[in-house]
Design goal:
MetI-like fold, 10 helices, about 240 residues, mainly alpha
């Protein structure tokens, strides 16, 4: 209870100051920053007409699918790069060139290759989240205690058995950390892709709302994205604790 109360102090303080500056004093106009009551009214309206549920569901689906593709490609590649120095040397140059490119830069190509829709959004999420997953997985494999490996070899394990039964289980916390980082990056990429190359989702809601000066609905979309990220972070943190040795 004490931890919950302490964690609520800063958010409640922000809301109080926000209400004072908008509702009670009018120092900040509503088109610039809506009051908490206006945000709640926008939330209620979006909830009643079903748009909030629809856009949230679509954004969640894109994030989950994009993260799944990133994990299916990033985790095996990270394991190979951490386990095989030859494979790491072979792929490090290409990865070093591609990794610094912002995912936003790929949006025109995503629209050109896949059109406006689900496929282009998944591609942008994949580009953004695959590298955190890959790098954390590779780092986890490289950090496996050498004593564990030597013990497995002493007991007669082959390299493939040591990889399956020692290295991968010991790397799970790092893999989960990579997924946790990937979710955050994936959410940012999803919102950007929905703003530019989609006609649905929370990013599209934020973009269209601000263009019509409906800042209350835009704040609602931003808060829902924050709640999704917080929930995902909590979920992966719990899983990380479960799999830690």
């Amino acid at each position: 209870m004490r931890k919950i109360i302490i964690s609520l102090i800063l958010p409640v303080s922000v809301i109080v100051v926000w209400a004072i500056l908008t509702t009670f004093t009018g120092l900040i106009p509503s088109y610039f920053l809506p009051s908490p009551s206006e945000v709640f009214e926008s939330f209620e309206s979006l909830l009643m007409n079903g748009q909030l549920f629809s856009d949230t569901s679509l954004t969640l689906m894109r994030v989950v699918l994009g993260l799944a593709v990133s994990a299916l490609i990033g985790i095996p590649l990270g394991i190979l790069m951490g386990w095989s120095k030859t494979f790491k040397d072979l792929s490090s140059l290409l990865m070093g060139i591609l990794r610094p490119i912002p995912p936003i830069a790929w949006i025109p190509f995503a629209i050109l290759w896949f059109g406006v829709g689900l496929e282009s959004a998944i591609f942008i999420i994949f580009v953004g989240s695959v590298f955190p997953i890959l790098i954390n997985t590779m780092d986890g494999v490289k950090r496996v205690d050498k004593v564990l490996l030597e013990s497995s070899y002493t007991l007669g394990a082959s390299p493939s058995q040591a990889l399956r039964k020692v290295v991968i289980p010991a790397s799970l916390p790092s893999i989960i950390t990579g997924l946790k980082v990937g979710v955050g990056v994936g959410l940012m990429c999803t919102v950007a892709a929905e703003m530019i190359g989609s006609n649905s989702g929370l990013g599209y809601l934020i973009f269209t709302s601000t263009s019509m000066l409906d800042t209350g609905s835009a704040i609602v979309g931003m808060l829902i994205i924050g709640i999704i990220g917080l929930s995902a972070d909590y979920l992966f943190s719990r899983v990380e604790k479960e799999v830690s040795w």
